[in-house]
């Protein structure tokens, strides 16, 4: 009876009504809060003097996610897709949950800073868990999968354009700015910033020839934006229409 | 009789012809001018020696908006939606009008500079009043409301992307630029500038790994632009077609 | 007989075949060359030692455009729209031609530099003359006229957004960067650069609050691009389809 | 018999199944690797101490592409379009193959650095070879050819806009920044960066008038992006639909 209630509360496939169950909504909110905690605790100005508060929050989130993990394992055997807790425990979603839990414990054991970094990055995988809950990432991934070939074409074209402009700028500027344009890989940093129209301006061509090449790069960069924008815009409007039907 | 004339002149719902009444057009023009006044008076180069002129303009706008406010209250009882001036006075639009009027008076009483700031910000709410007059904001808000779910999805996806790239850059650059990338919230400033392709260039990655992450961020930023562009473009073209019918 | 030949060669409405007559194609090419001349002669590196060449080119273009002007006047009386040379001479297109001719003569008379500037700017009006020849500007202006209301709405919305973000940044940054954010008009320079995603980076917020406002500005700037992009994209695709029919 | 097998393996027109033959897929992969080699070998940090490895890779790619070139010549006579190896050898694709081969040999003979540069640039033409293999560039070129006129119109309009804004900034800023805005060609570097919304920020207007002109340029730059984006988006969605049928 408890198992059935848990299954309906936690397993989206077992939920009767539309959208997420109330329990899952709360879990999504908890995950978002734990991500915010992970973001804020990296900023000394926001943690100074509040260390006990952060420790308590860590403990709270760990307890909450541990209970959720065990409850999901317990409830999984009612879902015909898994049958037993062990098959569910080996799904990608469940393994992500486990890694997130481990990331809570291990920092307390005094591991190396480099390990901390990796585990902290793993904590962000929590974001991937959100994908299970909403239609958002389903729709996005559906749109991307449906047009994967067209997007692949535009990525190849963009990469070719990037290589061409990097080489052109390398040839034009390497004698004047060896530090910034002394090799094609170095010129690529400039090339990416220009083709995506980000344009940091930390590295810019200074020779007339380099500027002419750069102008052509910037103008063709419009096409580099127009191509995937057109493809994605079409794909998303299609995907949105399919969902509405 | 005067009340009916005022109602037809001031209340868009009581106006017979298409568009705005001549009176309301003049009021819109006055509001725009008062906003320009508020903008210009913050620039010393534009106010130096012209203080009496600005004071006179303030007085003029205050008088005009006070008369308009009282006239609207008087005319409101003819509109079945309000019935009495008091019910109209408590609508959001009317309260905004009142705040704007108060913002005119209180600076003269010698309040603190911080209060001035807040009132000055309130003065900009006049912009919101313009929304009552034209189809512009109606259409925009209609398009946004209609696609609120799709836009929400893209905002969540963009926020996730921002978190991911901030964390990646924080991990790659924190030891080399602790001031700029020493925490995830600090790295977010760079991340927003890159994902929106603004690219100020005040903060840029300097390590090869950071630049590779940044290149991926800039390229995925194209999708970050393409997604809401596609959704909004579709929503606005739909909204424009609905209005035309 | 000569008048008729000139009319068919110069007046697009009197031309039999599709597109422009051979004579008008040559004149378009001449106009483009004269614009390039005007552009290049401002750069000392490109004029040094070539002054006689530039003077000769000036003389050549002046003679060519004078002959063209007189021939157009002579041929105009055959076009029922004008009837007489004098009515044609007072059309906007013909007056532009005359101003361009005058801009050639007056620099030789030793006028002031400031006048030179104005005349040089007038020389660029030649570009407007190109509009008579091709479908290009017709289509563009048709698309813009057809959606003038929608574009007006988006311009008003964008201007309001710019005012709001300028005021927000002015309030957040004025005490820290009085030179750059000391007044709303000054903050507008930053605001335009951010909302259009140009992002020069010469002026950037430095306070946490200012950066939060700036992040919102940059993100809403995506909508500022998406709105006119969607409207214009639709307008141009419509205009292109109408032309093809 | 060998000739027929080679023809089916190498000549896309003689290949039976859909897509590329397994042999051609391998060749595409080899070409991509050789491009990466050419890119990496320009960066001293990536070549230091690995010179023998790079030399061996050069030799390997040269041998592979030489064998491929000869095999293609041998197999070409079975294709009715060429008939004989000599006719195939004079096609554009085959000449590009030959230039790429020559670019491998000549650096070893001790030519001048400037020649190296040209040959290195020629090596990038390998990218053009990829166009033979995939639908990608076919579709892109088809979309561009189909809307060549519309794109031409937008390029002309963009160029006119660039000239106008360059001249305006030149007039406004030349006395204050003679190095950056002292001539129209110099102002064009700024103009391209602004109209494409790249916005490096290495050169920015400093006078109020220049900033007002720049603001108008940046805002019209949105249209400069919207126009080709709309045209290309429509062209690609059409091209994609045609391919799918």
From TrEMBL, chains A, B, C, D:
Family annotation (Gene3D superfamilies): 1.10.287.70, Voltage-gated potassium channels. Chain C
Pfam family, one: Ion_trans
Keywords: Ion channel, Ion transport, Membrane, Potassium, Potassium channel, Potassium transport, Transmembrane, Transmembrane helix, Transport, Voltage-gated channel
Record has Transport as a keyword: yes
Keyword Plastid applies: no
Domain of life assignment: Bacteria
TM annotation in the entry: 23-40, 52-74, 86-109, 151-172, 212-236
Protein name: Voltage-gated potassium channel
């Amino acid at each position: 009876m408890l198992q059935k209630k848990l299954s309906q509360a936690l397993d989206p496939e077992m939920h009767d009504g539309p959208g997420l169950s109330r329990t899952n909504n709360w879990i999504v909110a908890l995950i978002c809060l734990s991500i915010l905690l992970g973001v804020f605790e990296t900023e000394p100005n926001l943690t100074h003097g509040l260390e006990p508060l952060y420790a308590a929050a860590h403990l709270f989130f760990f307890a909450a996610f541990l209970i959720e993990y065990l409850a999901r394992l317990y409830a999984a055997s009612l879902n015909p897709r898994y049958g037993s807790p062990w098959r569910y425990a080996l799904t990608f979603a469940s393994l992500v949950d486990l890694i997130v839990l481990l990331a809570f414990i291990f920092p307390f054991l005094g591991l190396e800073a480099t390990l901390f970094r990796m585990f902290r990055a793993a904590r962000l995988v929590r974001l991937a868990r959100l994908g299970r809950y909403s239609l958002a990432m389903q729709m996005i991934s559906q749109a991307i999968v449906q047009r994967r070939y067209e997007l692949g074409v535009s990525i190849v074209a963009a990469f070719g354009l990037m290589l061409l402009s990097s080489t052109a700028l390398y040839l034009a500027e390497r004698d004047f700015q060896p530090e910034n344009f002394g090799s094609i890989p170095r010129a690529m940093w400039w090339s990416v910033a220009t083709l995506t129209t980000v344009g940091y301006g930390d590295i810019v061509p200074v020779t007339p020839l380099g500027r002419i090449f750069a102008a052509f790069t910037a103008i063709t960069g419009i096409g580099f934006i127009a191509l995937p924008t057109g493809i994605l815009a079409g794909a998303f409007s299609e995907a949105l229409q399919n969902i509405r039907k």
